[in-house]
Structure formats: C-alpha cells, structure tokens
Amino acid sequence: MSDVELLERPQAVPASDVAIDCHVDKIFYGKFLAVRDSNVPIEKGKITGFIGPSGCGKSTVLRSLNRMNDLIKGFRLEGQVNFLGQDVYARGIDPVVVRRHIGMVFQQPNPFSMSIFDNVAFGLKLNRFKGDIEERVEHALVRAALWDEVKDKLKASGLSLSGGQQQRLCIARAVATQPTVLLMDEPCSALDPIATRRVEELMLELKNDYTIALVTHNMQQARRVADVTAFFSVDISRGGRTGYLVEIGQTDQIFEAPQEQLTKQYIRGDFS
Ligand SMILES: Nc1ncnc2c1ncn2[C@@H]1O[C@H](COP(=O)(O)OP(=O)(O)OP(=O)(O)O)[C@@H](O)[C@H]1O
Ligand SMILES: [Mg+2]
Asked: Can you tell me the distance from the alpha carbon of 206 to that of 154, in angstroms, rounded to the nearest whole number?
C-alpha cells in the first residue's frame, strides 16, 4: 500500500495504520453547513462502518475522501484529508488519480450501458492502462465473485444482469484499477437479503487486500462486517441541521458499551 503516489514526486510517506486520515472541520454546500467536527481515521485493512440517522452527513464525509464531492456545485471543505500521508486536496493533485486509488461503489448498482467486459475495463481505459486488459478484467470479476456467472457472456450488456449481479459488477469495476481503498455508500440497500449476504461476504473477502469504508443504514450489517464503527448524528440546536461525528470505536464497543448517550439511544432504536 505504501507505493501509491498521487504526485509524481511525493513527500516521504509516514508509516501508520491509517490509510485515510480525515479531519473535517466544516463541510459546506453553498452557505449550508452540512457537517462539522468529524475526524475519522480509516484504518488499513479494516472495514470502517459509518452509521447514523438520515441527513447526518455520512455520504458527504465518505465522498469527501476521494474528492467525489468536487463534482457538486457549492461544495467546500475546511480541514484535511490525508491519504497515506498525502493531502488529497493539495494543489497539483489530480482528482482522477485520487479516485483511481480510492474507488467508489454507490447505493444503486449503476453499470454503464455497455458490455460486462467494457464495464470492468472502463476505469483501466480511462487511466490508459498499458497491461493485459483481458487478464485484469477476469481477475476483477473473480475478486468480485461474479466470474463464474458471467464468463460465458462477457459481451452481454451489464444492464442485463440481476440487481445483485449488477452490484458485484460495479465492485469488479471499482477493483479493476486496483485501488487501495474502496468507499461503499449503502451498497446493499437495493438488494434482497440473499444478494446482501453475498456482497457482505465479498466485503469480508476484499478487506484482505483493500481498506473499506462503508456507509450503512443496516445496523446488523455494521455489526456483521465493520471492524470499526463511526456514529454520526445531526445537531439541530443551532437552528440548522448539521451532521457531526459523535463517537468512533471498535464495533463491539460501539454496540455493547457506547460512551455517548446519543449513541446508546440510536443503537437502542430510541430516536425521541
Ligand atoms: N448535493 C447537495 N447539495 C446540497 N446539500 C446537500 C447535498 N448533498 C447532501 N446535502 C445535505 O447535506 C446534509 C448531509 O447529507 P448526506 O447525504 O451526507 O447525509 P446522509 O447521512 O448520507 O443521509 P442518508 O442516510 O439519508 O443517505 C443533508 O442535510 C443534505 O440535505
Ligand atoms: Mg447517504
């Protein structure tokens, strides 16, 4: 993981257990303060789950990690996001390169309207990959536990697959460029329980090679797969609705011995 370079001449990368050190002071959309005071270290080789009520900023923080929010008008981050010691918002950093190292899987499976093969090869072509594309595509489909189901129909449209298969195709597309980190925003929310289990098993498999940050509304899912859990809430005391990190810790600790009253209430299902 340490040979990743966002800049042609990177600074010395300090050894650390953290793949992405995220220090959010404030995130704005235009004048709206969407998130404040959220320091979320994403540890290497682990799954970090983001939980919390709707609107508390889970997706906003997740998308800040690989500069996906750059695409949103009015987005502004005060703070720092360090990926293996490199500030991803520093001048001279190309967001496309950031996203190659920090890949993303979305809530709705979103295969492109092209063949299964081309879906997986998409990021490789975008990044002008010079190696053996066929080998890379096969490897990515194997890693995403989809190869056996599609190896005889690689020219079929990605859209012809089932929802669960489409989501695994999107995971294959994300892993094809061999990122260091995978960001997943509610990747199972459009899937049935069997497809969900399949993707969860896949996440547990993938964390041997990738660092994963996972947004989920499903608390059982967080318990099943996340090593570390970050609980966010919404602060309505100042007249706005600003999200912030309440507590982060080992998943067992967050669910069994939360330090904060708010976390306790949320885990109990008490939203009053
Ligand atoms: N593109 C945007 N433009 C303006 N405001 C936005 C945008 N995206 C999100 N917000 C606002 O920022 C806040 C945090 O939203 P975000 O989507 O990060 O929450 P979330 O925790 O992911 O919620 P959910 O669980 O419903 O997905 C919300 O108040 C939301 O309305
Ligand atoms: Mg969200």
From this structure: 23
C-alpha 62 – ligand 2 centre gap (Å): 9
Nearest residue CA, atom 12 of ligand 1? 34
Mutate to test the pocket of ligand 1, among 32, 56, 60 (most ligand atoms within 8 A of CB): 60
The mean pLDDT value for 171-177 works out to 93
- Binding site membership of 48 for ligand 1 (Cβ less than 6 Å): no
Distance from the alpha carbon of residue 63 to the mean position of ligand 2, in angstroms: 10
Question: If we measure between CA atoms, which residue out of 51, 56, 99, 57 comes closest to residue 77?
Answer: 57
Q: Closest ligand 1 atom, CA of 53?
A: 25
Q: Is the pLDDT of residue 7 over 80?
A: no
The length of the chain is 272
Question: Has residue 14 got a pLDDT over 60?
Answer: no
pLDDT tens profile 100-137: 899 999 888 899 999 999 999 998 898 888 999 999 99
Strand order of the β-sheet with 228-235 is 86-87, 75-83, 18-29, 32-43, 242-250, 228-235, 47-51, 211-215, 181-185, 102-105
**What predicted TM-score, i.e. pTM, was given to this entire model?**
0.91
Ligand 1 atom closest to the CA of 29, numbered from 1: 4
- Dihedral sign (CA 73, 82, 247, 51): positive
* pLDDT (tens digit per residue) in 139-171: 999 989 899 999 999 999 999 999 999 999 999
